[in-house]
User: Which sequence fits this backbone?
């Protein structure tokens, strides 16, 4: 089985038409579906949060059959993820795409569970501690993209479960939980 | 009924008259009535049909759509004993008429052999109610009747005198001699100018005479080819299970000869307003053979070339071809024009089914090599025995129906069998045991 790093590639990764944007509707829908699944799977296992359209992305090329996705195809597949809420464009020019293999709501739930597990229900943590502290090591939160984390925290703040405040040092923000 | 008295005209499936070996159509008039004078046992009343003048016959065809019981028939020019030209003041108001005497045998039938004893003459009249150049029709009628082309048929082919004699008669007008009378002054200058002009005219005329000779030679060639084809045809049926190789070369020879030419091409000059209609019918007859060879569908461009090659000197324009094809909708012909989404136009049999081609494409793309490498339009063209442009159309149609999908890369544009429907999106790693996806997977992973 072909691999990309430690990621196992599906058999159809060697099927040349998989890399050409199909013009026929039914075929194209299925193709997009397969790409969406594969992108999410890959990003999840490799902990990739942002795909730059103009940068090299290993999944978008198959050197074995010498095929790669065109810019149009990449944008099409990522846009399909965006329309399902599984990704977001970070800029108007659609050059960077945030991949949400967990939706923002799911990330918020993970944060709540993390806070409960570590008995921080009324505690205070910095944003940076949540994504790289000792407690988060070994959880999905470890190494989480800051943009996604902030979105999830804002969602929780909106629900009254925490308050975000500026810390004394300017380089970080603090979070006061009240779950 | 007309058929009782006049011989019936044999028609092709597209409704064009079947012509005699060296017969040529010269002029067409629509909306013509053909009737005879009242007589004891001879009566013809044919309403508003198409009148075709050929070198051998005057053919009357029923209008379109054909009224029940109405059939095409003809008067052999050989049976015409006299042409009556009527030019009266009346013709300014009434429809133009053309009368001629026809010899009728004792049995009340128009006689092909005008010298049979006991025949009598009947006056027949054609009333031209339609628009069209009646004068030129009448002139042609005279010309053809005097030309007696039917007599020449009986002579041996090789004798070139038969061809020459037809043209010698028309060339007498150039020799106008200047009687030696002395002309001076302005009149003299004018006279000299006239002479110079006439001599130029004569040399031009001679030049065209050569061209005519060339064209009649071309006609001879076509006739020769036709004759040889018939000989080969009868020869091969007799030989039976003779030498296979010989048979092959004979067949090839036949094909060659068959594609040599159309003896009587429909021209604007002969058909006038009916040009496209007649061209359309002739084309429908013509495409049958090339269609058969190319599996029921052929590119319009290919037909354009083949058709014009067969016509030889009377070339048609692409627009004429297109118009002729579009008119097929209106006639009952077995062929049709088809336009693909890409704009490519083809001619195909009405009985043609895409499914057959798709079935062939399907077998083609599931072969081990094609499973792995896909096929290009030119590969498909070779395997299916069709033109690359057509092969591409078929592949694109098959793609649009979900049978194939495409692969565009620096290597080119290729098609693969469509595996997408078989791939399960819930589990990307599953390959079901049966199906094309499994076949493909085995072949690709073993390579």
Assistant:
């Amino acid at each position: 089985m072909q691999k990309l790093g430690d990621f196992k590639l599906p058999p159809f990764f060697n099927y040349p038409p998989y890399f050409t944007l199909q013009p026929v509707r039914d075929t194209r829908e299925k193709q997009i579906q397969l790409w969406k699944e594969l992108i999410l799977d890959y990003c999840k296992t490799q902990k990739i949060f942002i795909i730059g359209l103009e940068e090299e992305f290993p999944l978008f090329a198959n050197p074995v059959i010498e095929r790669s996705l065109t810019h149009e195809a990449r944008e099409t597949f990522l846009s399909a993820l965006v329309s399902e809420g599984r990704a977001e464009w970070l800029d108007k020019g659609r050059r960077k795409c945030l991949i949400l293999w967990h939706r923002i709501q799911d990330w918020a739930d993970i944060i709540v569970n993390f806070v409960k597990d570590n008995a921080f229900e009324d505690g205070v943590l910095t944003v940076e501690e949540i994504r790289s502290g000792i407690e988060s090591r070994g959880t999905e939160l470890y190494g989480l993209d800051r943009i996604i984390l902030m979105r999830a925290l804002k969602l929780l703040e909106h629900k009254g479960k925490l308050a975000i405040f500026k810390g004394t040092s300017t380089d970080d923000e603090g979070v006061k939980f009240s779950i | 009924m007309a058929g009782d008295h006049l011989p019936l005209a044999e028609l092709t499936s597209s409704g064009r008259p079947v012509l005699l070996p060296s017969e040529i159509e010269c002029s067409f008039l629509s909306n013509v009535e053909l009737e005879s004078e009242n007589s004891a046992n001879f009566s013809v009343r044919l309403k508003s049909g198409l009148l075709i003048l050929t070198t051998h016959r005057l053919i009357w065809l029923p209008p379109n759509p054909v009224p029940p019981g109405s059939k095409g028939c003809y008067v052999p020019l050989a049976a015409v004993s006299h042409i009556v030209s009527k030019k009266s003041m009346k013709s300014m108001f009434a429809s133009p008429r053309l009368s001629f005497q026809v010899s009728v045998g004792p049995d009340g039938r128009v006689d092909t052999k005008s010298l049979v004893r006991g025949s009598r003459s009947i006056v027949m009249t054609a009333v031209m109610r339609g628009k069209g150049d009646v004068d030129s029709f009448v002139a042609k009628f005279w010309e053809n009747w005097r030309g007696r082309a039917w007599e020449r048929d009986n002579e041996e082919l090789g004798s070139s005198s038969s061809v020459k004699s037809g043209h010698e008669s028309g060339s007498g007008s150039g020799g106008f001699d200047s009687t030696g009378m002395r002309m001076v002054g302005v009149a003299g200058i004018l006279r000299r100018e006239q002479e110079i002009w006439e001599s130029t005219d004569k040399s031009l005329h001679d030049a065209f005479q050569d061209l005519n000779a060339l064209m009649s030679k071309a006609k001879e060639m076509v006739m020769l080819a036709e004759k040889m084809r018939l000989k080969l045809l009868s020869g091969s049926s007799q030989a039976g299970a003779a030498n296979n190789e010989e048979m092959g070369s004979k067949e090839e020879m036949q094909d060659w000869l068959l594609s040599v030419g159309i003896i009587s091409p429909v021209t604007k000059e002969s058909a006038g307003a009916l040009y496209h209609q007649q061209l359309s019918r002739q084309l429908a007859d013509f495409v049958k053979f090339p269609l058969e060879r190319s599996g029921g569908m052929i590119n319009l461009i290919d037909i354009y070339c083949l058709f014009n090659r067969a016509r030889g000197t009377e070339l048609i324009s692409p627009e004429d071809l297109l118009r002729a094809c579009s008119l097929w909708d209106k006639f009952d012909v077995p062929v049709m024009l088809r336009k693909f989404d890409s704009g490519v136009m083809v001619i195909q049999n009405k009985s043609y089914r895409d499914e057959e081609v798709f079935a062939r494409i399907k077998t083609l793309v599931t072969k081990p090599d094609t499973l792995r490498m896909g096929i290009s339009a030119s590969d498909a063209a070779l395997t299916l025995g069709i033109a690359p442009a057509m092969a591409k159309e078929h592949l694109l149609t098959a793609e649009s129906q979900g049978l194939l999908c495409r692969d565009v890369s620096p290597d080119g544009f290729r098609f693969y069998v469509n595996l997408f429907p078989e791939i399960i999106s819930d589990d990307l790693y599953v390959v079901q045991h049966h199906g094309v996806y499994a076949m493909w997977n085995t072949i690709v992973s073993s390579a």
Summary: Chain A has a mean pLDDT of 89. The interface with chain B takes residues 8, 10-12, 14-17, 19-20, 22-24, 26-27, 30-31, 33-34, 37-38, 41, 66-67 of chain A (CB under 8 Å).
